[in-house]
Design brief:
With 402 residues, this protein is of the alpha/beta class. It has 2 domains: 220 residues, Rossmann fold (3-Layer(aba) Sandwich); 158 residues, Rossmann fold (3-Layer(aba) Sandwich). It is built from 14 helices and 16 strands. Strands 1, 2, 3, 4, 5, 6 and 7 form a 7-stranded mixed sheet that branches. The protein has a 4-stranded parallel sheet with strand order 9-8-10-11, with helices on both faces.
Length: 402
Amino acid sequence: MLTRRAFTAGVGAAGLGAAASRARASDKVVKIGVLTDMSGALSSVLGTGSVDGARMAIEDFGASVAGMPVQLVFADHQLKPDIASTVARRWMDEEGVDLILDLGSSSAALAVQSVVASKNKIIIVTGAATSDITGKSCTRNSFHWGYDTYMQSAAVAAELTRRGGDTWFFIVVDYAYGHTLEADARGKILQSGGRVLGSVRHPPDAQDLSSFLLQAQGSGAKMIGIGSAGDFMDRVIRQGAEFGVWGKQTAVAFGLQLYNIPAIGVKNMQGIVHNSIFYWDTNDQTRAFSKRFRDRNGKPPAETHAVNYSAVTSYLKAVRAAGTKDTEAVLKALRELPVQDAVTPNGQVRQDGRLIRPTYLTEVKKPADVKAEWDCLNVIGEIPADQAFKPLNESACPLVKS
């Protein structure tokens, strides 16, 4: 059953009895909450697609597991950590939600991660990128199923450096996200024998990026790492194409999403490289899953849409294996069971809660090679799971045994 829950600040005294009654009733129901951006800047790559990814997994179980019905609720956190925390508390305290997933915003994810741990429930982050989720902020109740800043930048930088792209220049947005992408990539480039020839940081509101692009072009670097997101990334790539930068140097777009490509245009993006958790046209399984999603949504799934399917599938498998929705039993099963589904091949959950799995090195096609709508990427390589994510021995997670 899919139920949309509007955000409310709290429950008045008159509603406490009803809330307690609902909580008791939910003891016999497995309840999953998708807490995401439904209306803001990330809604196209999260939003209703995130809800549908989770719903498809529930449907595959016949909306029932271990003799209990499975219900789905969702809410819009508006990219605000205070709203996300309030919704999470209400869901767990009053509505008996057992699992919260998605999150989408790193600040919202970290805020909810702390709340979930205090309530001894489970959170699987699928749409937020900060590596702190399984780093210094990790908890025994939390998992990170989707992309993170290390996978988006360091893993692909190391792989491309080994392939001969051994000189780099960075154009990154001047706030924490861009700084982290650059720092992670820079470390792996140097470790892999490459060189960083320079970097520039553009203000978040910069409209004219010509001076930054000319510096990158003038550096002579083989690879240009773009550490931006949303409209910022669109602007860098469009203006770089106008200057003819990408025809001479290879752009690596950290954090690129499939949905960015039609918006920017294949003509402006041909040859741009990206490390992806999921691409709809990778193999027969991904194509079959994506057809199901596209039949409902009119377009293939973005990464988080697909990863929500995988996360909910694994959670329900864990409940089935445990024979209960008890948090301790499900946490144990989540860490022990292999992760294998249409979205995630050969996945394994580490003790820090990080799901490791192979990722795909993709390149935007030339316009002449595009045969159909959304046929815009070539898979040019695979990065093994143990190289795609931060090594466990580099983790700051307090759960990791030295």
